[in-house]
Amino acid sequence: MTISHNNVNFIAHITPKPEHYQDCINAIQEILPATHAEAGCLRFELYENENRTQLTLVERFIDQAAFDFHHQQAYTKQVFTLYQGWLAKAVDIIAIKPL
């Protein structure tokens, strides 16, 4: 895959409450197919740390408009609504760019 400098890239750190760890995984996994089907989505992958306390989403979209489109979708908004009761702290979304 060719990385364009117009692409936008993000790492989202998600810290669920222990009792909602699997709920958060399930919620994200449920939106993977719809997110991957978005015209502007180039990468949307879920990872977990070794001690199963934090999830990380690695995201790449063709441009900021595509990233914004993703966050406007009902399925994305639903996950953020669920997060309100499930997370130990707010999602930390970090913009990154290739060197």
UniProtKB/TrEMBL annotation:
PROSITE patterns: ABM (PS51725). It comes from the Bacteria. One of its GO terms (molecular function) is catalytic activity. Residues 8-99 form the ABM domain. InterPro entries: ABM_dom, AI-2_Isomerase_LsrG, Dimeric_a/b-barrel. PANTHER family: ABM DOMAIN-CONTAINING PROTEIN (PTHR33336:SF3), QUINOL MONOOXYGENASE YGIN-RELATED (PTHR33336). This is ABM domain-containing protein. It comes from Pseudoalteromonas peptidolytica F12-50-A1. The lineage of its organism: Bacteria, Pseudomonadati, Pseudomonadota, Gammaproteobacteria, Alteromonadales.
